[in-house]
């Protein structure tokens, strides 16, 4: 009898395993196809842009012989399809080429600037989610009251006010006039290159080195750009959280919980909020990814030597090696955030397993 049961279960297990492998294979194929299309589309757009990368290298006053020599060295004299094929083969070998401006390997430059943006985005999302989610819940619970209108006004201003304008006003007020925060860059010039570059994140490296002066200098420089970015994040997250909570607070299970005598706090946080955590994971993850690629204006205003400013400079001169590499990194970041979101879904909602 036991053998019959095991024989019956075994094919079912095999089918379940095949489905899992099939889903994994489909997901992997989708990721690879997305990355390939990203590379192809970015390469085509780069070739259609009215920018000559050779001029960026030799300058507008170079003679014809120098121009043609550099063009040949860059491979730009070859047919476009052949250029793309060579570029694709280099990518598969992990070779993204060199930058036009510095002459260094692209990945070396990206490894230098990416930690600055990750550090800024991480501090920003902590502030944005840490303030925006409670504000959204508070607004939903007090729907139609003064608190609700105040939160909605904050969100409206955060969406409608240009972020670069807020940054410039913040610099003039808190740095130039009051002197409460640091100016441009990540550190005061006096503290540059004092602590060893272990992780690339100045706040962490300063703590690892035990140098509190460098740490507080880094804090004073990051607090204003992170707060400006966080304001836009708070506006978005609070509005979405309010919408999710209003939907849950109108459900029958909430009315039943209130009828059974569950406390107001319990109804809000243990019932209604518990059911929107999965949705908020997606909102916060996408907000974080958007900051990594969309902090260009803030990095420009505050002179922050980050990924966004580096990509913008590459676009201006048509440095496609940098543009494609940055595009792939952004695509990989969003893919990684989606994977992390899926794992968190299973943690917050065991039914998904």
UniProtKB/TrEMBL annotation:
<protein>
    <submittedName>
        <fullName>Peptide/nickel transport system permease protein</fullName>
    </submittedName>
</protein>
<keyword id="KW-0472">Membrane</keyword>
<dbReference type="Pfam" id="PF00528">
    <property type="entry name" value="BPD_transp_1"/>
</dbReference>
<dbReference type="Pfam" id="PF19300">
    <property type="entry name" value="BPD_transp_1_N"/>
</dbReference>
<dbReference type="InterPro" id="IPR045621">
    <property type="entry name" value="BPD_transp_1_N"/>
</dbReference>
<feature type="transmembrane region" description="Helical">
    <location>
        <begin position="153"/>
        <end position="176"/>
    </location>
</feature>
<feature type="transmembrane region" description="Helical">
    <location>
        <begin position="280"/>
        <end position="302"/>
    </location>
</feature>
<dbReference type="GO" id="GO:0005886">
    <property type="term" value="C:plasma membrane"/>
</dbReference>
<feature type="transmembrane region" description="Helical">
    <location>
        <begin position="214"/>
        <end position="237"/>
    </location>
</feature>
<keyword id="KW-0813">Transport</keyword>
<feature type="domain" description="ABC transmembrane type-1">
    <location>
        <begin position="114"/>
        <end position="341"/>
    </location>
</feature>
<comment type="similarity">
    <text>Belongs to the binding-protein-dependent transport system permease family.</text>
</comment>
<feature type="transmembrane region" description="Helical">
    <location>
        <begin position="322"/>
        <end position="345"/>
    </location>
</feature>
<keyword id="KW-1133">Transmembrane helix</keyword>
<dbReference type="InterPro" id="IPR000515">
    <property type="entry name" value="MetI-like"/>
</dbReference>
<feature type="transmembrane region" description="Helical">
    <location>
        <begin position="21"/>
        <end position="45"/>
    </location>
</feature>
<feature type="transmembrane region" description="Helical">
    <location>
        <begin position="120"/>
        <end position="141"/>
    </location>
</feature>
<keyword id="KW-0812">Transmembrane</keyword>
<dbReference type="InterPro" id="IPR035906">
    <property type="entry name" value="MetI-like_sf"/>
</dbReference>
<keyword id="KW-1003">Cell membrane</keyword>
<dbReference type="GO" id="GO:0071916">
    <property type="term" value="F:dipeptide transmembrane transporter activity"/>
</dbReference>
């Amino acid at each position: 009898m036991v053998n019959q049961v095991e024989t019956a279960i075994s094919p079912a297990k095999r089918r379940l395993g095949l489905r899992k492998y099939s889903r994994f294979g489909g997901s992997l194929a989708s990721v690879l196809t997305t990355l390939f299309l990203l590379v192809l589309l970015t390469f085509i757009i780069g070739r259609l842009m009215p920018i000559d990368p050779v001029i960026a290298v030799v300058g507008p006053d170079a003679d014809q012989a120098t121009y043609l020599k550099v063009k040949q060295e860059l491979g730009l004299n070859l047919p476009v399809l052949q250029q793309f094929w060579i570029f694709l083969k280099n990518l598969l070998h992990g070779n993204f080429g060199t930058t036009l401006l510095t002459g260094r390997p692209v990945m070396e430059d990206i490894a230098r600037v990416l930690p600055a943006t990750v550090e800024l985005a991480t501090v920003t999302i902590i502030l944005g989610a840490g303030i925006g989610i409670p504000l959204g819940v508070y607004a939903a619970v007090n729907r139609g009251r003064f608190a609700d209108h105040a939160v909605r006004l904050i969100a409206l201003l955060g969406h409608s006010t240009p972020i670069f304008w807020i940054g410039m006003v913040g610099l003039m007020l808190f740095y130039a006039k009051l002197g409460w925060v640091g100016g441009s860059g990540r550190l005061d010039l006096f503290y540059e290159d004092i602590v060893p570059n272990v992780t690339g994140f100045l706040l962490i490296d300063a703590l690892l080195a035990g140098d509190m002066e460098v740490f507080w200098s880094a804090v004073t420089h990051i607090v204003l750009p992170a707060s400006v970015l966080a304001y836009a994040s708070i506006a978005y997250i609070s509005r979405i959280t309010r919408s999710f909570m209003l939907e849950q607070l109108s459900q029958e299970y909430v009315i039943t919980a209130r009828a059974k005598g569950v406390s107001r706090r319990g109804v809000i946080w243990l019932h209604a909020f518990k059911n929107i955590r999965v949705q908020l994971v997606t909102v916060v993850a996408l907000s974080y990814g958007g900051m990594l690629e969309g902090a260009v204006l803030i990095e420009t205003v505050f002179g922050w030597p980050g990924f966004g400013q580096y990509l913008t400079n590459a676009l201006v001169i048509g440095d496609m090696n940098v543009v494609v590499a940055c595009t792939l990194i952004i695509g990989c970041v969003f893919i990684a955030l989606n994977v992390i979101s899926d794992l968190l879904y299973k943690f917050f909602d065991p039914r998904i397993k």
